[in-house]
Write a structure and sequence with these properties.
Layout: H1 8-12, H2 30-36, E1 40-48, E2 53-58, E3 63-68, E4 75-81, E5 84-88, H3 91-98, E6 107-109, E7 117-124, E8 137-140, H4 148-155, H5 163-175, H6 179-182, E9 190-198, E10 205-208, E11 217-222, E12 226-232, E13 252-259
Antiparallel strand pairs: 1-13, 2-12, 3-11, 3-13, 4-5, 4-9, 4-12, 6-7, 7-11, 8-9, 9-10
Domain DUF1989: 48-227
Pfam families: DUF1989
Protein name: DUF1989 domain-containing protein
Length: 281
């Protein structure tokens, strides 16, 4: 059935309906987080080298910050429940709840059956960017991560510094296991600082030069004990291509901060999802 129907325009004109209205979604106490982040004590840092990845840990109730330190650079972020690696960031559900890109006050949600907030964005110095004339914005949850399998499919060869491989090596080193054992833990990412969208004519995923500048950062509040892995993408600012040895690439700094005693009085880690898991059986 490829013939255009007589009522085609009327069908196209049907108004969309939001799939997941979020009025009842549990909201973070941003006033509490804003107050707590005014007086933080740095407890650790990791410098992620260009075209590589590194892991880091963040206790529940602490903050962590990803900063551009030398030049325009995007990063691919994975998060796990540090006490149960089966619970990990769920980019698809985060996208369904918050949209294609996330910013201050929005959350990174975990996989089933936990399905609860893992981290809340507490500050975003690129919050000013909004959505540009091309439909592009920053910090996307639509791109999966550059990977050597797609690279091989489209270009041939074996490129080992795609973000997927970077994250795999970092997790293998952290856990002390072979890369083939670590690889299944790597999952779809938050593309930190990456500027992306979908073309209006073909609906294709696009990227453009990131607006990030040295000193810009994305800051998170850890809602649970977290293990994170961040890759400094081989595409640099992703203005031309990713999975490339030609792009200018720079390190990314991950810093962890503790709030002052009493700054989070009243906050408790989110419980696992309340669904009873019987599935009608």
């Amino acid at each position: 059935m490829t013939t255009t129907p007589d009522d085609a325009e009327a069908r196209r004109a049907v108004k969309p309906v939001i799939c997941y209205p979020v009025e009842t979604l549990p909201q973070p106490d941003m006033a509490l987080l804003t107050g707590a982040r005014q007086d933080l004590r740095k407890t650790g840092e990791v410098l992620v080298q260009p075209r590589d990845a590194a892991t880091f840990t963040v206790p529940a109730g602490h903050f962590f910050r990803i900063t551009s330190v030398e030049g325009s650079q995007v990063g691919d972020l994975n998060l796990w429940n540090a006490n149960d690696l089966n619970e990990r960031f769920y980019s698809g559900k985060t996208r369904a709840l918050h949209g294609t890109h996330i910013t201050t006050g929005e959350r990174m949600w975990s996989s089933f059956p936990g399905m609860r907030p893992m981290a809340t964005i507490s500050h975003d110095t690129l919050g000013w960017y909004g959505i540009d004339a091309y439909g592009g914005s920053v910090h996307d949850v639509i791109g999966t991560r550059c990977d050597p399998y797609t690279h091989n499919l489209l270009k041939g060869g074996h490129y080992h510094h795609c973000c997927h491989s970077n994250l795999t090596r970092a997790m293998a080193a952290h856990l002390g296991v072979p890369v083939r054992e670590a690889e299944p833990l790597v999952h779809d990412v938050l593309n930190v600082f990456m500027c992306t969208g979908f073309t209006r004519d073909t609906g294709q995923y696009f990227m453009k030069a990131s607006p990030v500048r040295p000193g810009d950062y994305l800051e998170f509040f850890a809602e649970m004990d977290l293990l994170g892995a961040l890759s400094a993408c081989p595409g640099g600012d992703c203005s031309a291509e990713h999975s490339s040895d030609a792009a200018a690439c720079y390190p990314l700094l991950v810093e962890v901060f503790a709030p002052q005693d009493g700054a989070l009085d009243g906050w408790t880690p989110p419980p696992v999802n309340g669904y009873d898991r019987r599935h009608g059986a």
